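Q: What would this chain look like folded?
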Amino acid sequence: MAISGVWEQSAFASVTVRILGEFDVAIERLQHALHIATELGSLGLQALTKFHLGLVWYSLGDYRQSAAHLTENVTALQGDLVRERFGYPSAPAIVSRAWLARSLAEVGDFAEAIRVGKEGLRIAETTESPWSLVQACLGIGGVLMTRGAFTEAMGPLERGLGLGESREFYFVSAQTAAFLASAYARCGRPGESPPLLEWASELALRPEFRVGQSRLLVSMGEVYLLAGRAEEAGRLAERALTRSREHRQRGDEAAALRLAGEVAARGTSPDVPEAEGRYHEGLALAEELGMRPLVAHCHLGLGKLYHRTEKREQAHQHFTTATTMYRGMGMTYWLEKAEAEMRELG
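A: My prediction, written as structure tokens:
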């Protein structure tokens, strides 16, 4: 077999095992593929391999490692190469920007995430690749959702979902639909969320969506919680926890823990020990992974929980931390929520 054939065998086998959640095997095969691509001196094969490595590390919750691989692509693929597909459905330079932006958003580097995400969208608009454009819309839309800029996020998310081809790309369209349902719910348009949730739910149950399922379940659970459907949100949180732990998707696990804490803290009779435990678990994991937006959310949740249980000093400490973090990251929507809680606490 020619050496290029060996690369193809390693690279495409790695994509299959990544989709199945066998990340250690995927990393091993991708590193082998990258070694072969380097020996061949093929920039295109190197770019494709680094893109998939970036996705693996993103799935594992190692957003710094993900960003490192994807940044290499962004740096190497300049000029005409930003639109070059190298035989792939979309240009690695564009999809690398989309996922780099999302990796940066997970750790709270929003200024750079927005710059990279918007750059990827501008490039995608100059191509004839629907897949590139759908990914770019999800990239910047996901960044804005993570920041809490829900109104601004609706534009690119609606655009991505509105592309006729988007429904062929179930992995991306399901995430887009869940994000958009959440944006509608946050922006006073809850009636538009259910059809999107139904569609996202159908896609989430597909066996081939195994790897992306946990974070999608969290997004859906957050919308149900906003609608006052805490029991359904709780079921989704537990499913997300099970799935994320099964595949060691630690970033998704941290997000699911925070959602479980939110569910336990709701209602007229909150389960305080359960809520406190889930929040602290999520907080510890988010801190370990450098997920600053999620760290701030956990502090806000704990502050609200302690306020309800009349632990004023502890509530004040967590609210102070949350407001400081939100302000530093420019998360205006969430900052206003935390400041309102501080005022109510007195």
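Residues 221 and 235 are 8 Å apart (CA to CA).
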